Amino acid sequence: MLIGEAIEIYINDPKSGLSNGRTAKGYKNTIRRLGSYREINTVTEQDLLDLCFTVCASGERKGQLPASGTIRTRRVRFQGFFNYADYAGWVKTNPAKNLNRHFRGAIMPVKQNNWLTRVQVIEILAAGDVDRAVGAR
């Protein structure tokens, strides 16, 4: 089966979980980088790794490695597609099966939050006008 045909079946199958049109378009664009007229069984794990780390062709990061979030997105899309292809019996071996072992544990940075202190929360709650049904809150 050709990758282009497999993509269309995958995108249009409700079991794929790609109900959002924008999400489906993103998956389609990422997976098409493998080549629409290529046999799905010819894809290797190295092909997927190469595409995950392909330098950016446009934008702020043109010519640079993609951001960790982009790499993660590409990896997840390839895994979703090839897990489905494996489930459907289109591939002899799933090239995305062991893709996770090539990535560091937490590649996405943890966002730092500035939480309010207990005293600040009490001050904010006390400042609200709760005596009337209508008023500043």
Name the features.
137 residues; mainly alpha; 5 helices; 45% helix; elongated
Q: Summed up, what is this model?
A:
This protein is mainly alpha-helical and 137 residues long. Helix content is 45%, strand content 0%.
Write the layout of secondary structure elements.
Elements: H1 3-12, H2 21-32, H3 45-52, H4 68-88, H5 118-127
Structure notes:
The protein is mainly α and 137 residues long. The chain is 45% helix and 0% strand. It contains five helices and no strands. The chain has helices at residues 3-12, 21-32, 45-52, 68-88, 118-127. Helix 1 runs antiparallel to helix 2. The chain is elongated, with a radius of gyration of 23 Å. The model has no long low-confidence stretch (mean pLDDT 84).
User: Looking at the chains present, what oligomeric state does this protein adopt?
Assistant: single chain
Tally of separate helices: 5
> How many angstroms separate the termini?
61 Å
How would you state the average pLDDT, rounded? 84
Most strands sheet: none
Shape: elongated
Query: What integer value in Å does the Rg equal?
Result: 23 Å
- What structural category arises from helix and sheet content? mainly alpha
**Beta-sheet strand percentage?**
under 5%
- β-strand number: 0
